[in-house]
Structure formats: structure tokens, C-alpha cells
Amino acid sequence: xxxxxxxxxxxxxxxxxxxxxxxxxxxxxxxxxxxxxxxxxxxxxxxxxxxxxxxxxxxxxxxxxxxxxxxxxxxxxxxxxxxxxxxxxxxxxxxxxxxxxxxxxxxxxxxxxxxxxxxxxxxxxxxxxxxxxxxxxxxxxxxxxxxxxxxxxxxxxxxxxxxxxxxxxxxxxxxxxxxxxxxxxxxxxxxxxxxxxxxxxxxxxxxxxxxxxxxxxxxxxxxxxxxxxxxxxxxxxxxxxxxxxxxxxxxxxxxxxxxxxxxxxxxxxxxxxxxxxxxxxxxxxxxxxxxxxxxxxxxxxxxxxxxxxxxxxxxxxxxxxxxxxxxxxxxxxxxxxxxxxxxxxxxxxxx
Amino acid sequence: xxxxxxxxxxxxxxxxxxxxxxxxxxxxxxxxxxxxxxxxxxxxxxxxxxxxxxxxxxxxxxxxxxxxxxxxxxxxxxxxxxxxxxxxxxxxxxxxxxxxxxxxxxxxxxxxxxxxxxxxxxxxxxxxxxxxxxxxxxxxxxxxxxxxxxxxxxxxxxxxxxxxxxxxxxxxxxxxxxxxxxxxxxxxxxxxxxxxxxxxxxxxxxxxxxxxxxxxxxxxxxxxxxxxxxxxxxxxxxxxxxxxxxxxxxxxxxxxxxxxxxxxxxxxxxxxxxxxxxxxxxxxxxxxxxxxxxxxxxxxxxxxxxxxxxxxxxxxxxxxxxxxxxxxxxxxxxxxxxxxxxxxxxxxxxx
DNA sequence: AGGTAGTGTGGGAGCGCTCCCACAAGTGAT
DNA sequence: ATCACTTGTGGGAGCGCTCCCACACTACCT
Lengths: 351, 351
Hints:
The structure is a homodimer of 351-residue chains.
Chain A: H1 16-23, H2 27-34, H3 42-55, H4 61-68, E1 73-78, H5 82-87, H6 89-102, E2 108-113, H7 117-128, E3 134-138, H8 146-153, E4 157-160, E5 171-174, H9 176-189, E6 195-199, H10 205-220, E7 230-232, H11 237-250, E8 256-259, H12 262-274, E9 284-289, H13 292-296, E10 302-305, H14 308-324, H15 329-333, E11 338-341, E12 344-346
Parallel strand pairs in A: 1-2, 1-3, 3-4, 4-5, 5-11, 6-7, 6-8, 8-9, 9-10
Antiparallel strand pairs in A: 10-12
Helix pairs in contact in A: 1-2, 1-3, 2-3, 6-14, 9-10, 11-12
The first copy, chain A, binds a DNA duplex (30 and 30 nucleotides) through α1, α2 and α4.
């Protein structure tokens, strides 16, 4: 059963040639069987498959990559330091969705952190060497040069979260506007009158859209938007604390807070607790992402859920389609494959 | 500055040959410069480096992998479904440590989930194809066949958390025994008299060692070990809940709980809360891992910290050493490179 | 002068595949 | 019987690199 081919440099692993000899066919024919070409007779296919099984043949991917100019690997590129990546549950969630979907394919997943200049440099080299067939990009800021580099190198890429309303790259995003809108609507329906918001970094398009949704929900309800109730955060817990402190100072009468992420909501919760405000009695709190911490918070946090699994699946599907599509990139770009998936408000005890 | 080499199949990227022509040297010489061989004169090196810069040359890794039989990539293999991986902060933490350390090298990181049979099959194929230079293994149960497969294929591997006291593979682990010991000591010092423990899955060696540490700490203090105070968990939150429920039923007088992981402690906390027990007044609670949820819990959880960053670094160092070492695996194995890193008790309000 | 190292260099061979051209054999219309 | 296709097959060429042998050239001894 085990491999017994001639000892070659690669440690005794059998080659195509050896399989061919064993099956009594040519090298090309074995290659066709391995790659599922239809132009092979049933008898030959069976013989080759038997030889493959007997020798325990596994194709050498380096050789394949060299000859066919593809790698069967994609990279998930995170233009942030690891610390940020893991502090923000959204990233892990995306990774989980992507991992789940990719498990169904033959593609391999590379995880690349490009959080500082040196690593960016290395990433550029890596991409220039075309070591992956495609790239998944998460957490891209408005002015990030990475997407342009990708376009220039003609490497298929899909972006998680658009950079602007007219994103050039194929993208998958959740409906941040509608999500924020529903959160604020919910707070209004609960009878809250002084609803504040803590925003994410506004150079992230999604954060901007959540703010837009907040504004629109108030306007739609005929309420004025009080700019003092809008506090800038940066998606971190510390940022949430700072923003909440400011809000409390500027508007002591605030009775509801919509935070642009669960992590910031956690920060806000701390400050509220320390200020002696009860949640939800004195101040209602709503987050965004519906990440694990929302369930663990005390009280459990009402939050806007994004369909992460589905987003992962969609990203992979889009990317694989891009990779399979061999028209020049310029022709592809025109199609504007932008997916926006719906969000859902998950109500818990905090509101 | 941009690449202007002859249009070859790989999309116009310059090859070694083109760089050689430009620099007026031979192919071998360019290869030597690229790979930092000392056997090159200063003048030649400078000329080659100029040509590389002018053409924007980047080595083709597929060709290199084929010729040199290495891939410059390592895999982090997780023999669990994605869901488990991300539910357990310990994994993310290891990944973070590994990512941070790997960022300093030229190696790339592949993330492979092998949580079901199909994926295991695929992983075996993948490893048989030697698509990575080495493997990092996390969360391996006592009876997992993966380490043996790795040994058989002679693929360098490092395991995170030993499988037993006499682990055959190089491994990095934290001192689970001492960590648990210190946690229980701490509870004793706080005057607790009825100290229970919730264990992890005992087919994970680390969980067993934590239980051993619990027992030893009690014995060392001259206290008897009451078997009813030992409740089996499985590292999940739900398992923590179940275990705590059992403990409360079996020993209503319990005044302290040492949980084998923070996640299980979170589960226990819920049950305690629902049962009307105050933390730490009625029952003191200590976790293990010092993960993010420990800080976010209410009250913040006292927990045993593992030096995750350092563990990631150590794993990478060990693995790179294994890869660089070209003695046969059988010679290496004898050295038993086992690292056990110290833990530290982080005291918070829960105890 | 002849020998013997050492140093730097060029380029052939070969890694294991895919691509594609050539060709044999079969099938059916003229 | 001839010509066209179609279907299945073999194997040459080539992907871009590393490895290593061969060879010039220098330097320093006898």
C-alpha cells in the first residue's frame, strides 16, 4: 500500500512519471486524470486511479504552481497589528466565516498581518511574487494604498466593508445604515428621548454609515439631531470609555447610547456603572456586531447582528469567481460586484 | 523603475536570467546574491543588487520551492471546528503570539482547521504533499493520530501543550500544575475552606495537570481532597454551567471555585448568580488563561495567566530550529525539547 | 619555475508538473 | 476507397529556480 517509488530528492514521494509507468500510460494521461479532464476513457481512468492509490501519489504543488502559474492559496490580509485584530471580535468572526467556507474548497488560507511599515513592505513583495491567487482584505481605511496595489498587480481581491459608496473592488458589507437606523428606532420606541451615539473611526466607511443611520433615524422620527450627543470613538474599549465620559459631561441627561461597536459599548458600560447610572433603567445601551462579549456583558447587550457566516461565504464566493474569471481585470471591474447583507437587531436586557 | 523584462508567461515579471543579463553576470551569481551567499565579490554584489532594484525582481517562490524542496511556510493546524477555536480565547491568544513572532521572519503562516473527518483527510493529503516546512499543533487530545502522522512523514512539528508527561514531539506548555497550585493556595490564603474545581476535558494533559495542581495544593496545606468537590467540565461555557449546577447540588456549602478555564468560570458565574450567591462574598471564583473575558467579567475574574506571547515565540523558535536542523528526525527526537513556561496569578475582584 | 590551495564565477542538469502539438484509431459521409 | 472529423493518447518543451561541477584566476608556498 505504501509508496515504493524510486528514491528521488523529494524524499521518496512518487511522481507523475512513476504513476504513469505503473498504470502503463503516458504522463499526460495521468495529469488529465488527476485534473479531472473529461477526455479520458473510462478504462484508462480506472487504471490510473488504481496506480495513484497503490503508490499513494500526491501531486507536488510547487511543480504545479510553477507550471500552471497558480497557487491554490488565498490570503486574508489584515492591515492592523495582531493586537487590534484579536481585540476586535468582528475580525475573528470574519475569519471564522471565511475559514468555514474555505474548508469546503481546495484552497488554502494564509493569514497575513500587515500592521506596520516593515510588514507592509514584506506584503508588497509577497504579492508582487504572486504567491497567492487572491486576497481578502479586511478593515481597510479610506486612504489605504493596498487596494490600488492589488489592482495594479491584477491580483483578484475582495474587500470586507467598502471604503466608500463607490467602492471599486468587489466587496461584501453589511447594511450599516439600516442596522444603526433600527437600533435608534428601537431606542425611540422604548421612549428614550436623549439618544447619544459613540462612533467608530470615521475614516472607516462603515462607521460613517452607522452615524448616518443614527442621524436618519432621528430625523425620520421628527427629532432634531443634537451634535453634542455624537461622541467620536475609535472602535476600542478605551475609546468607548473616553467618549462616554465626554457624553456624560456634555449631556448629563442622556438616557440612551447607541455605540458603533460592542467593544465600545463595553467601555461605555464601565463609565456608566462608575457614574452610578443603571442599565437600562437610567441609560439604555445598544451595541453593534452582536459579538460574544454582547452575550457576556452584564446586563446582556442589545446589539445589531451582522450575518458573519454569510459574509464569509459571500467573500469567498466572490473571490473564487474573480479568480476563475480570466478576462482582464479592467473588464471585470466594471461589473461592480458589491454585496450588502441585511442586519438584525438582537434585543437583550440592556435596552 | 518598473519591470520591463521580456513578456514571459508569469505576466512580465522578471526572472533570474533577466537580472543576470542586465547585471552582466551569470545566473548562478545572481542566485548567490539573492540568497546571501558570502562567496560573491563586493563589486558583483553591488551590480546585481542594482539590477534587481531596476527590474523590480522578486524571486518566484514556486520555482524555488520546486528546486530547493522547501516552501517557506508553516501551518498552524487546529484539530477542532472553527467554532470551538474562536469560542476558546486561548486559541486566539496562541495565534496572536505566533503571528507576532512570525512577522519577524520570512515564513508565512497557513491556518488549517481540521475539525471533521473530511478536513482531516484533506490535511493528511496536504501534509503528504509537503506543502509546508513545519507544523504547529494546538489543542491535541491524548489519542490524536496527527502527531504520529507528522512523525511518519518526517515533518518538523511543535505541539502546544503536551499530550502526556513524556511527549515525543518538541512542545511548549505553561506550568499548569504550578498555576493551579497557586490559584488554590490563593483561595486558601483568603480563608476559603470548601474549595471546588471544575476541570477541563481530562484527555487534554493540561487539564489533568491543573487538577493535579488543585489536589496537591490542598494536600500541601494539610487539607483532605473531597472528591465531590471535583466536577468535570469540557472547557465550554455550557460545561461550566453544568458543572457548577452539580457542585451546588452536591455541596451547597462550597465557598470557592477554581475553574480550569475562564470560559468555564463564566459559565459557573452565571449559575452562581442565578442561585443568588454573591461573588466573591459567598463564593470566590478563579479562572485559568487570563483571557479577555476575565477582565470583562462582572466582577472581574481572578485568573492564572499564561505567557502567551512568549509561548508563541518559543513555538516558532523551536519549529524553525527543527526545520533548520537537517539531521534525521530520529536523531533529533532524542533531545526532548520540551519547554514549560511559568504562570502567574492575576488577582481581581472575584476572589 | 612548479605546485597547491583558495576565491569567484558561469552554466548544465534537473526539480515535477502543465500545456499543447502530433498522431493513432475509430466513425461516418462522400 | 477517400476524406474529414472526433476521441484518446504520448511525450517534448518549458516554467524559474537551486545545486553543484568545472574552470579561470590569484596568491602564496616550496
